[in-house]
Amino acid sequence: MESEKNIVFRYALFLIGLFIASMGVAFSTKAGLGTSPVASLPYSVSLIFTALSFGGWLNVLSVIQISVQIALLRKNCKPLEIVIQTVLAFVYGYLTNLSCFLIKSLEVKNYGWQLFYMFLGCIVLAFGIWIQLKGNVAMLPGEAMNRAISTVTGRRYENIKIFFDIFYIAASAVICLVFLRELKGVREGSIIAAVLVGNIIKLYQFLFQKINGHRSQRELRN
Question: Over the stretch 30-86, which tens digit does the pLDDT of each residue have?
Fold first, then answer.
């Protein structure tokens, strides 16, 4: 049976990953070239309906995603997992607000700086997600909803994720064009993030395995 100390460590690791990921989203938002697919929809809505902040609309989307899971899984839905998802989702929403506040004073002088913050956001977001995967204690509502739909329909998880990433970007674009007459929540950065983040996570994992491999070899020699 897993020790309490190890469980606490893994949850702490997951929460650190959440904060780092929220910083990645904040840098992407600061760039103004569009944020990650999942964050693009609440960010676009927050530009129009200002009653809630960016993080607040992230929380609303999380509640919708959790509700979809409950409706689909029904008796197979695990109450404890839903509770953990809900708590972590709201923590992530507030961390996103905090991260945006922390870098509020940074200046974006030109398109070069926009590109810099966009790529920095991708690197930081990927690192945060990679750390969450290492924690391996829970999934955020968006990914858990994709998993639930995959389970019920029998379709591949990867295909469900791609569909919803495209849906979030398309919905964000429509909302911005209708209400703002311009693209703000989603731009070239959203597409680049969709391509880059997953590949950067693979790079982190590759480097981690390489370092662990070298460490194991040194220990064997000693």
Answer: 998 888 888 889 999 999 999 999 999 999 999 999 999 999 998 888 888 899 889
Count, in order, helices (H) and strands (E) of the chain: 8, 0
| pLDDT tens-place string over residues 205-214 | 899 988 887 7
Indicate the number of domains in the chain.
1
Q: Whole-structure pTM over 0.85, yes or no?
A: no
3-state helix, strand, coil in the chain (%, to 5): 80, 0, 20
Task: Please give the radius of gyration of the chain, using alpha carbons only, rounded to the nearest integer.
Answer: 18
> Which residues span the domain enclosing 54?
4-221
63 neighbors 88 (Cβ within 8 angstroms):
no
Six token digits for residue 116:
């810099």
